[in-house]
Amino acid sequence: MNIAGQQTYAAGREVLWALLHDPVVLPHLLPGCQSLVATSTDQYHGAITIRIGQVMETLEGDLLLEPGAPPRSFSFHAEGRNPDGALRCRGRIALQAEGPDATTLTYEAEFETDGRPAQVSSRMHQTIAQSFARRSLEALQKQVDIRTRVYTTTTDRQPAPSTSLSMPAVERLVMRRRAVAVVVMALSLLLVRKRLDRRRARS
User: Fold this and answer.
1) Domain for residue 121, yes or no?
2) Is the dihedral of CA 120, 122, 127, 129 positive or negative?
């Protein structure tokens, strides 16, 4: 089974290359990734959960990135297994610079399954693979936005509560501060008067 596609990002080729090879970012680019630990340079071991038909399959295995021509292209090989079957995938990703701040990512991949994951139809396999690729590209877009400082959350769309005080509130605050100041001054005068009375009594 083969899939292919592309997407253009508002970022330089070096930025995309760095994100795709960052051990911290990479787990966020793989939908359903449960864990991913680097075992050597460009090689990882982890677990991923994928819905195949009506079953959620958790597969454990390895991912290998093979730099072909940094930062233009690289190949990848992935294999995951569980007691009920296996999934293997290999492919290639190319990064084509469209300018200083634009890059088109092109991908192509082929995959095969054994055991229970192979029992669903080829059409279902195609749908699952395309959905996985689409979600990966969307996750990469979020990471690009974070890296280029244009990422916003949905809560940012709500108007921020005003922190300025209305005029009546300002007047009340000023009057309150004045009242506190008057009380402090009165207490200070009272203390001074008591001290003077004590000194007179001693003399």
Assistant:
1) yes
2) positive
